[in-house]
Amino acid sequence: MPGLDTQYMLDLLPVLLKNLPLTLFMAFVGMGFALILASLLAIVRIVRLPVADQMVVVFISFFRGTPLLVQLFLFYYGLPQVMSFLTAIDGVTATIMGLTLHFSAYMAESIRAAIVGVDRSQWEAAESIGMTRSQMMRRIILPQAGRIAAPTLVNYFIDMIKSTSLAFTLGVTEMMGAAQKEAAGSFRYFEAFLDVALIYWVIVEILSFLQRRLEARLNKAFAR
Amino acid sequence: MTCTAGISVQGLSKAFNGTTILNGIDLTIAPGERIVIIGPSGTGKSTLLRCLNFLDRPEAGTIRVGDLSVDAAHASKTDILALRRRTSFVFQNYALFANKTAKQNIMEALVVVKKMPQAEAERRALAILGEIGLSDKADAYPASLSGGQQQRVGIGRAMALEAELMLFDEPTSALDPEWVGEVLELMRRVAAQHQTMLIVTHEMQFAREIADKVIFMEGGRIVEQGPPSQIFDAPQDPRTREFLRRLG
């Protein structure tokens, strides 16, 4: 292809990949917090905890109803104005916060649906042998809900990895930010951003492979 | 026999959305006694069993199992757990834990509820699998078992609790006809161990053969009870006669 400087692309790859750990760090930490928060939100919704339930409904509605980019700007540029203790917040922290809140809203709904989707007979059988509520959740319901929710949760994780690229709008030099800087010097924008796209693509393909393996494992008990 | 042996139920009542399902059920079950409940659909037979295990919560009445007495209207969480540990339940749709193997299904109550050490629970589960004739299916998941095999594991899981009362809620109704025989056969063997059993079933021949006492229920009440010979051959109440006549 005329004009495509493949040598530049190859040379740039290691430079960009140096920032991959930061991308993965934000994604993994964000996913960890989002899973915890989403489980709590789901439980509040399932047991219909008074007041908290309504608050969770509004929370989920807001974070699903507004763009992630807007949320990130609100946290990073907006909140420090009204809450002075947040002035020290850096771009990475703000990104992780934003990813956590944004994706926990989505994940809470799929976790809730998965728990409610476990067949009633499973709850009753656990009750009938005298399990306590927490034993029942831990040993019977959550493992089965996990199987139902796993594909969607991995999809959200994939989405989250890609969304870390928005961190560059908060001045974070992750892969996208690095590509932007390099391209600004070399004017090879197409090559730089194509590199970024390819890296994301490969990561997501690896995850999709792992996702299929995970699903096969989780479905083992349910194969006829 | 001490005065606290056996099971008694007094004034058990249950309503769903204002409709009375159970209307003051009184029942006494002697240790080792096998009682079969028959009656038309929707007359509260299953609900009675489910209330005894608190799968459905009765509004009023007293349930006494051995020295444990539970007042339904004021039952605490502790009462309910204690009652469930002294009664075991066999479900119409088997309700095996889908994420556990046959062996794990049986071990679950032993390890989690009875706090038995893992190795001991495993030995016990394997012994039960032998009794139910499924030793070769120890590591099979429910989805790979036939209906009859699943229900036998369901009975094995209930056996593991060694409960003072085993409740069977139409254990063969969901089965293909080819599997009914093996499940009834297993129930006969459970009965032979002097297990106290309360069975809801539509298998009249089986009821006649296994029951010490047959109860005919209709409209949330016990209409008539007695030995199978009386209920099946010389029913006293016209409603019992009508029900049996329609069965042919």
Task: Walk me through what this model shows.
Chain A has nine helices and no strands. Chain A is mainly α and about 220 residues long. Chain A has a domain at about 20-170: Orthogonal Bundle (MetI-like fold), CATH 1.10.3720.10. In chain A, helix 1 packs across helix 9 and helix 2 runs antiparallel to helix 7. The radius of gyration of chain A is 21 Å and the shape is flat. Chain A starts with 5 loop residues before the first helix and ends in a 6-residue tail after the last helix. Chain B is of the alpha/beta class. Chain B has a domain at about 5-95 and about 165-245: 3-Layer(aba) Sandwich (Rossmann fold), CATH 3.40.50. Chain B contains nine helices and ten strands. In chain B, the strands form two sheets. In chain B, strands 6-7-8-3-9-10 form a six-stranded mixed beta sheet, sandwiched between helices. Chain B has a four-stranded antiparallel beta sheet with strand order 2-1-4-5, covered by helices on one side. The model of chain B has no long low-confidence stretch (mean pLDDT about 95). Chains A and B meet through helix 6 and helix 7 of A and helix 2 and helix 3 of B. Chain A: It comes from Roseibium suaedae.
Which CATH architecture of the domain at 7-96 and 167-247 in chain B would you pick?
3-Layer(aba) Sandwich
The string of secondary-structure elements of chain B, in order, is EEEHEEHEHHHEHEHEEHH
Rounded radius of gyration of chain A (Å): 21 Å
Shape of chain B: globular
**Main sheet: strands, sense, barrel of chain A:** none
Q: How many separate helices of chain A?
A: 9
CATH superfamily of the domain at 21-172 in chain A: MetI-like
Q: Name the shape of chain A in a single word.
A: flat
SSE pattern of chain A: HHHHHHHHH
Tell me the span between the first and last alpha carbons of chain B.
40 Å
Q: What's the alpha carbon Rg of chain B, rounded to whole Å?
A: 18 Å
Estimate the mean pLDDT confidence of chain B. Answer: 93
| Assigned CATH superfamily of the domain at 7-96 and 167-247 in chain B | P-loop containing nucleotide triphosphate hydrolases
- Low-pLDDT parts of chain A are none
CATH topology description of the domain at 21-172 in chain A: MetI-like fold
